[in-house]
Design brief:
The chain is globular. Strands 2, 3, 6, 7, 8, 9, 10, 11 and 12 form a nine-stranded parallel β-sheet that branches. A five-stranded antiparallel β-sheet has the order 18-22-21-19-20, covered by helices on one side. A three-stranded antiparallel β-sheet has the order 16-1-17, with no helix packed on it. About 30% of the residues lie in helices and about 20% in strands. It has helices at about 10-20, 25, 45-55, 65-70, 85-100, 130-155, 190-195, 200-210, 225-240, 265-280, 300-320, 355-360, 395-400, 420-425, and strands at about 1-5, 35-40, 60, 70-75, 80-85, 105-110, 160-165, 215-220, 250, 255-260, 285-295, 325-330, 415-420, 430, 440, 445-450, 455, 465-470, 485, 490-495, 500-510, 510-515. α6 runs parallel beside α8 (about 200-210), α10 (about 265-280) runs parallel beside α11 (about 300-320) and α11 (about 300-320) packs parallel to α12. It is of the alpha/beta class and about 525 residues long.
Length: about 525
């Protein structure tokens, strides 16, 4: 089949891309990575993947790398603990590898979601509790085998951080209570070791076996309560940092707006915790951010937006360069582990909430897309599999006003009318720096079949690529420098060059060009 592409569609698509591809990752690119989570369901949802590609440049598997999902009972021995990656973990890690999205591993050593038999003789739930010497062997083997499995299975994956130990502090500071009732906060790790000495051992093993580029974190919640904060800082983070075993502190940040008049914690208390950890000389990841409202009452959305703004202001002002990642714990409200209290920045339909808009307003538009040292993303080689990273954009999400950046993000002087049936954009006038005149693109003129000698013939037997610059935006290189490929309909295809013959749009920063892959 021979295809002729009218060049005007490229001009129109540039406007669509500028409006729909600016996300939180771009807004905050000069500050830190801005991430979210995926699980076995959301990673198989094309709408969710499209939103992730637009908004985020860090992914944490929600449950898929936790001990209960990865430790294999059958065949394990004290010196060789069998591990596995389930279908959800595989899909998440493949998606991230294909799209060059850095991954935060979560988590290795935790009192919760770890099988009871892991601490008992013969890996049997009825067995006696093992000795510390045996547990040392099992812990080292598990950590070694997990890093080995991930790195060998996904050699191009950017596993940039890992929560080595999670939630080892009691609310009052100090070790958790020994016992098998994790639901009530008891810890089998403390049951075996009698104290928190297992923490240093876990970091010792992680430092030994983790990739050199993987930063190692301690992660905890209520990390802003004074007694717990001081214990974490002085008894865990500081000594491990001094021994070269730990790189950073993960502040989970499961917060509560309530009605807005009595949020917990206050922004100032949260900021004080940031200062405490920053003064230890470690990196800080806000690792599981969400902020609930009482009874999910949407009348509190405004208060929620203000709270998000205040918390982010503390992160920016108190954390500074020490904060290298902020991760929101859930994409849409209906997918949150606290869904009844609507804690996220996208509602159940994927629309941007007021909280999202307040986060965007905090960063001057002139800083959008600028790359800081903490948020750089490596582009993979052209051998990446484009097929596994392709996602179909739903027409509703492309047309929704919630997925379009404010027109103020595009400095302009002209108008472009784009037919909705051809580009997925609204037919209403939008502003963009295109030319001094109005350009109309009809649905019938975008792509036409013809035998004209001026057509661009495509052959699936060749990988030759023709490149045609189609528009130089008047914004220099303020967009994200990560290369992204799109179909002519504006559907994101990931960051790897498509292998299938065809015509594509490639965007890097606010520079967009058409390519023909032959």
């Amino acid at each position: 089949m021979k295809i002729k592409v009218v060049v005007l569609i490229a001009f129109a698509l540039q406007l669509v891309f500028a409006q729909t591809t600016v996300g939180l990752k771009d807004v905050y690119s000069s500050k830190f990575k801005f991430g979210n989570i995926l699980n076995g369901n959301t990673v198989n949802n094309n709408t969710m993947k499209q939103l992730v590609l637009r908004e985020f440049n860090s992914i944490t598997p929600e449950n898929e790398l936790k001990p209960d999902a990865t430790i294999v009972q059958n065949g394990s021995t004290n010196t060789n603990v069998k591990v596995q990656l389930g279908s959800g973990a595989k899909a998440i890690l493949q998606f991230c590898q294909d799209n060059n999205i850095p991954v935060r591993g979560h988590t290795l050593v935790w009192h919760s979601q770890t099988p009871g038999w892991f601490f008992r003789e013969n890996f049997n739930a009825s067995g006696a509790v093992v000795s510390t010497a045996v547990m040392d062997q099992r812990m080292e083997s598990y950590i070694k085998n997990m890093f080995e499995l991930i790195t060998t299975s996904y050699p191009r994956l950017n596993l940039y951080a890992y929560d080595v130990v999670n939630e080892a502090s009691s609310e009052s500071g100090g070790p958790r209570t020994a016992g098998s009732d994790a639901g009530n906060g008891q810890s089998m790790w403390v049951q075996v070791y009698k104290d928190n000495s297992f923490i240093e051992k876990a970091f010792t093993y992680a430092r030994k076996y983790a990739p050199k580029t993987t930063k190692l974190f301690y992660n905890d919640y209520n990390e802003y309560i004074s007694a717990k904060r001081n214990y974490i800082a002085n008894s865990i983070v500081k000594p491990l940092k001094e021994k070269g075993l730990l790189d950073g502190m993960g502040m989970q940040s499961h917060l509560d707006v309530r009605t807005g008049s009595n949020p917990y914690p206050t922004a100032s208390d949260y900021g004080a915790a940031i200062t405490t950890y920053k003064n230890l000389g470690v990196e800080i990841h806000v690792s599981e951010l969400d902020a609930t409202i009482d009874n999910g009452n949407e009348s509190y959305f405004s208060a929620q937006a203000t709270y998000y703004k205040n918390i982010m202001t503390e992160i920016l002002n108190k954390g500074g360069s020490a904060v290298t990642a902020v991760v929101i714990w859930g994409i849409r409200d209906d997918q949150s582990w606290r869904s009844s209290r609507k804690p996220l920045v996208f509602d159940a339909n994927g629309n941007k909430k007021a909280a999202y808009n307040e986060l965007v307003k905090l960063i001057p538009e002139s800083d959008w897309g600028k790359t800081g040292s903490s948020s750089s993303v490596a582009v993979s080689s052209s051998s990446s599999k484009a097929s596994s990273s392709s996602t179909a954009a739903s027409s509703s999400s492309r047309a929704s006003s919630s997925s379009v950046a404010s027109s103020s993000s595009i400095r302009s002087s002209s108008s472009v009318n784009v037919a909705s049936s051809s580009s997925g954009a609204s037919s209403s006038s939008s502003t963009g720096t295109i030319s001094s005149s109005s350009i109309a693109v009809s649905s019938s003129s975008n792509i036409t079949e013809s035998s004209s000698s001026s057509e661009e013939a495509l052959s699936s037997s060749s990988s030759e690529e023709d490149t045609t610059p189609i528009l130089g935006f008047g914004l220099s290189t303020q967009g994200s420098q990560l290369i992204t490929y799109y179909s002519l309909k504006g559907e994101p295809l990931g960051n790897a060059k498509p292998q299938k013959a065809g015509i594509y749009i490639v965007k890097q920063g606010y520079s967009v060009k058409k390519i023909v892959v032959r």
